[in-house]
Write a structure and sequence with these properties.
8 strands; Rossmann fold; alpha/beta
Length: about 350
């Protein structure tokens, strides 16, 4: 049988319609970088089309060899377990070949895109106050946060590499959830360092609930420290270097450059505190929210510490529909869930278990 290749970009999905639109726009630009193959996409959860829908469209085009990549920055549970589980099941059901690529990861192009976003923010900041030097500026990179220590450590490396390129005075790393330090306690510690300017850069691909949360907590801390200039850098989005990296990940499947970095993977190595997760079976944990629709800005608002303290007018925090009592699957408890700078939701899950 003649081989016909199709490309599948596997996104996470979001309750934010803005984020979903940005992802589809991003994928819509990829054919410029991969003109020889049809490109489709699908989401793991919270949005349509789901991953199986994208695979169906490629199969309808006659594709019998799928090059699938995670549309994600790093390899944590979604990229290592959830997406491969969906792809493996589809490949077995329809007897078609599905190759799987690696995450965007730590890459010179990704560092270039991140540094460009920080430089853009610095240009805007200098337009308002040119008297603050780079040496008097601290870079704070905010990652998604994960129960995978390897993925969390990657954000710290990104932070340092971007700091080296932008030549700023200092750098720190925070997280939007799951792990620590969260945005607010991270910034509250940094203001003690005495820097005149703080650049807050969300190392995220697209907008959404968590970007609103990061910027909201930045505004909250800034309101209490008016002597410091807080600058909110833009997230990565469809920067050309990100698109270039994604295309390289697709092509890497054919050349054999698709092995994720397993050196410190908690599913393979005995990472202190994560020993119980070694060799866990590969399975998707998101079937119960697969295909749930995204929501428009301003909807689905719930109470949170940010809303209680400082209303930004743009916060779209998610309602927790992920009730572990109602599902048979199990997430291992994050061993550092009791950390005082971490999320309350993790502590509740720890004590509940």
């Amino acid at each position: 049988m003649q081989k016909k290749i199709g490309v599948m970009i596997c996104g996470h999905g979001s309750r934010s319609q803005v984020a979903v639109d940005q992802f589809s726009n991003f994928v819509g630009k990829l054919p410029q970088y991969l003109p020889e193959w049809p490109v489709e996409f699908g989401y793991l959860e919270f949005a349509n089309p789901v991953i199986r829908d994208g695979l169906d469209r490629l199969r309808d085009l006659g594709c019998n060899h799928i090059l699938a990549v995670p549309g994600m920055l790093f390899a944590a549970m979604h990229a290592k377990n959830d997406i491969p589980s969906v792809l493996n099941a589809y490949s077995k059901e329809f007897q078609i070949e599905v190759g799987y690529g690696r995450d965007l990861g730590i890459d010179a192009n990704m560092i270039g895109a991140a540094s460009a976003r920080v430089e853009e923010a610095l240009i805007k900041a200098d337009a308002n106050n040119q008297s603050i030097s780079r040496e008097e500026t601290c870079l704070v990179v905010i990652g998604r946060g994960s129960s995978d220590p390897d993925a969390n450590s990657n954000i710290s490396k990104i932070t340092r590499l971007v700091k080296e390129q932008t030549k700023l005075g200092w750098c720190e790393t925070g997280y939007s959830g799951v792990t620590f330090p969260l945005v607010q306690p991270c910034l509250e510690q940094i203001v003690k360092f005495g820097f005149k300017r703080i650049i807050v850069f969300p190392y995220f691909l697209f907008s959404g609930v968590l970007i609103d949360r990061i910027y909201g907590f930045t505004d909250l801390v800034a309101s209490e420290h008016k002597d410091i200039q807080f600058v909110k850098a833009d997230y990565l989005n469809d920067h050309p270097l990100v698109l270039t990296t994604m295309a390289e990940r697709v092509k890497g499947i054919l050349s054999g450059d698709n092995a994720m970095d397993c050196t410190m993977c908690k599913y393979r190595e005995g990472i202190l505190g994560f020993e119980a997760e070694i060799g866990l079976p590969q399975a998707s944990h998101h079937h119960h929210v697969e295909g749930q629709g995204a929501q428009a800005p301003g909807s689905n608002v719930s109470e949170c510490k940010l809303c209680e303290a400082f209303c930004t007018g743009v916060c779209r925090l998610e309602i927790n529909t992920h009730d572990h009592d109602d599902h048979s699957h199990h997430h291992p408890v994050y061993p550092h869930a009791d950390h005082p700078l971490g999320p309350e939701s993790a502590r509740k899950l720890l004590h509940k278990s």
